[in-house]
Design goal:
elongated; alpha+beta; zinc ion binding; DNA-binding transcription factor activity, RNA polymerase II-specific; two-stranded antiparallel sheet; transcription; DNA-binding; Double Stranded RNA Binding Domain; single chain; zinc
């Protein structure tokens, strides 16, 4: 056991350090005495490495971390001591190692020295390049012990594991709702802040997520990338395609708990449920009358506005509802 004075702080820490030359002999002789003769055996390379590792393990006195090299421990200790020797002149940030500062400076310089040999993409760190390479090789070294699913990144595996554990470590400070993914929390927080950072370049509309923006832009381009395999219809979103396919399959996954009637859309079930609850969430601003359906409120509002959007093609008469028009058109046929 030896006391090591760290250059970066004023503390002298008792560290579990075995001070030896960095290069030890490749083989360690073990002598066994048999009376008048002595035999010498050599331990395996693996055993030597294991013994060497144990002897040279350095423990952090502040936490449970263990490091194979003293230099690594000294860098780690700066987390506890708050010592940051390397500072960035552009952003004012401080770093515990020169390497960390160098990598950070690339944010300001735009330098991406690590390029992919398979495509044109470049990256700021070798780690980012290594992860990117897996998109070409298909390598997924991290597998879930619960379901066997594999992932290319450790972070993605940890995120996936929360499906099994139910862990939701990220909570909203405004409403307390919890999330398993940090990005989901950030997106949710925009409900409270009203932030809509994604704007359409073709019109003035803004959106809370990039996905919403991408879907909206299809109204300008006319793109409908999701096509039905049973008919010729195409849709702007996979959700709309999924709902449409129920017209072919007859699937009605939403059941009313009061009467057992089933529906293909959740919205239709919610609308139906108001028959049982008596809820009328839509109120007329002119007379205060309430309705269970929005379309009923819109139709009622024409009494106050005088609007008659349905006109007869045979005469000049107009009507407030399509039903009124149909009834009227029968007078021409008779």
């Amino acid at each position: 056991m030896a006391s090591v004075k760290l250059e970066d702080c004023s503390q002298t820490l008792e560290l579990n350090v075995n001070i030896k030359d960095e290069e030890e002999e490749e083989k360690i002789g073990t002598s066994v005495s048999h009376g008048d003769r002595v035999e010498t055996f050599s331990t395996s390379r693996e055993q030597q490495q294991e013994d060497h590792r144990v002897k040279r393990s350095h423990h952090c006195p502040h936490c449970e971390e263990i490091f194979p090299f003293l230099s690594k421990l000294k860098i780690h200790l700066k987390i506890h001591t708050g010592v940051n020797r390397y500072s960035n002149t552009d952003g004012g940030k401080n770093f515990t190692s020169l390497k960390a500062l160098t990598v950070h400076q690339r944010v300001h310089t735009g330098e991406k020295p690590h390029s992919c040999s398979d495509c044109v993409k470049c990256f700021t760190t070798s780690t980012e390049l290594k992860v990117h390479h897996r998109t070409h090789t298909g390598e997924k070294p991290y597998s879930c012990s619960d379901c066997g699913k594999s992932f290319s990144q450790l972070g993605t595996l940890k995120q996936h594991e929360r499906i099994h554990t139910g862990e939701k470590p990220y909570s909203c400070s405004d409403c307390g709702k919890r999330f398993s993914v940090l990005d989901h929390l950030k997106t949710h927080e925009r409900i409270h802040t009203g932030e809509k950072p994604y704007s359409c370049s073709d019109c003035v509309k803004c959106f809370t997520t990039s996905t919403e923006l991408n879907v909206h832009q299809r109204t300008h381009t006319g793109e409908k990338p999701y096509s039905c395999s049973d008919c010729v219809k195409c849709f702007t979103t996979s959700t709309r395609l999924k709902v449409h396919q129920r017209t072919h399959t007859g699937e009605k996954p939403y059941f009313c708990s009061d009467c057992g009637v089933s529906f293909s859309l959740l919205g239709h079930l919610k609308r139906h449920a108001r028959i049982h609850t008596g809820e009328k969430p839509y109120t007329c601003s002119d007379c205060g009358k309430s309705f269970s359906l929005l379309c009923h409120l819109k139709r009622h509002a024409r009494i106050h506005t005088g609007e008659k959007p349905y006109s007869c093609s045979d005469c000049v008469k107009c009507f407030t509802t399509s039903t009124g028009l149909i009834v009227h058109q029968r007078t021409h046929k008779s």
